Amino acid sequence: MNKTYLTNGKQLSFEKAQVMAIINITPDSFYDGGKFSSVTDIVKDAEMKINEGATIIDIGAASSRPNATAVSVKDEMVRLREPLIKLRKEFPNIFISIDTYLADVAEFAIDLGADVINDISGSQMDKRMLDVVAKHQIVYVLMHMQGTPQNMQKNPSYDDVVKDISAFYDTKVEECKNVGFEKLILDVGFGFGKSVEHNYQLLKHLNEFTRFQFPLLVGLSRKSMIHKIINTSPVTALNGTTVLNTLALENGAKILRVHDVKEAKQATDLFEFYKSV
């Protein structure tokens, strides 16, 4: 897929697979919550990840781990404001994504220079979200989640997880087109209202979602679907993450959303060369 999106005067191309670096500025994320003590630390972390090969940095100010406590609009904005302003100034050419499902937070971040909105709820938790991204013609990650972060892992159920999520995208893509918006990235939402079996079924059949003709993002980094199979933990799940990222690339993924940029960039470089010979 050689799709290119124009966002804030910059071209985001998917001719080759991209790496999106996770920067959590939350106290309670499942792997790296509470990592930063200052905005300077956040900027240093972003600089390192950009130097390692990230083309997109994804900033989250509200944890979406299972059973996470909801954060108010005001608190999310307060957490985002200073880091976003500083990152936008320091890295004018990098793509900055904001991980939020709240339309007011999205609009706030867009006004401060965000290029991408990464919505774990696919606009299901805030119906105004599609109007906001359509108004600004910003790139939008449309993720599938069953339930909310507070209840999503309490017995998730599907008739057929691949067909059900495909039907979800049939509806949501049409909704986006109806408001004049098509700068979409699709994310099936590994770990968001899915059992371990659901996650691996989605990974195995990921290429079925390429029929929508939008780039596919995968967020597999250090998730429980890894350590529940090979008895690791979030801290020791890097090798498992790389294995699953490679499978995702083979099955059509165009963006790897990761904590560990260097290893993900090595995976994408090796995969792209493998495809070319």
List the helices and strands and how they pair.
Layout: E1 4-7, E2 10-13, E3 18-24, H1 39-51, E4 56-60, H2 73-90, E5 95-99, H3 103-111, E6 116-119, H4 129-136, E7 139-143, H5 161-178, E8 184-187, H6 196-204, E9 217-218, H7 224-230, H8 238-250, E10 255-258, H9 261-276
Parallel strand pairs: 3-4, 3-10, 4-5, 5-6, 6-7, 7-8, 9-10
Antiparallel strand pairs: 1-2
Helix pairs in contact: 1-2, 2-3, 3-4, 8-9
Number of beta-strand segments: 10
Number of helices: 9
* Overall helicity: 40-55%
What is the typical, i.e. mean, pLDDT? 93
- Low-confidence parts: none
Q: Give the spatial strand order of the biggest sheet.
A: 8-7-6-5-4-3-10-9
Spell out the helices and strands N to C: EEEHEHEHEHEHEHEHHEH
Biggest β-sheet strands, sense, barrel: 8 strands, parallel
End-to-end C-alpha gap: 18 Å
Q: Give Rg in angstroms.
A: 17 Å
Q: What portion of the residues fall into strands of 2 or more residues?
A: 15-25%
- Which class do the helix and strand fractions yield? alpha/beta
Gross morphology:
globular
Which assembly state applies to the chains in this document? Answer: single chain
3D structure, described in words:
The chain is α/β, with parallel strands linked by helices and 277 residues long. The protein is 40% helix and 16% strand. It is built from nine helices and ten strands. The strands form two sheets. Strands 8-7-6-5-4-3-10-9 form an eight-stranded parallel β-sheet. β7, α5 (161-178) and β8 form a beta-alpha-beta unit. α2 (73-90) runs parallel beside α3. The longest helix has 18 residues, at 73-90. The radius of gyration is 17 Å and the shape is globular. The relative contact order is 0.14. The model has no long low-confidence stretch (mean pLDDT 93).
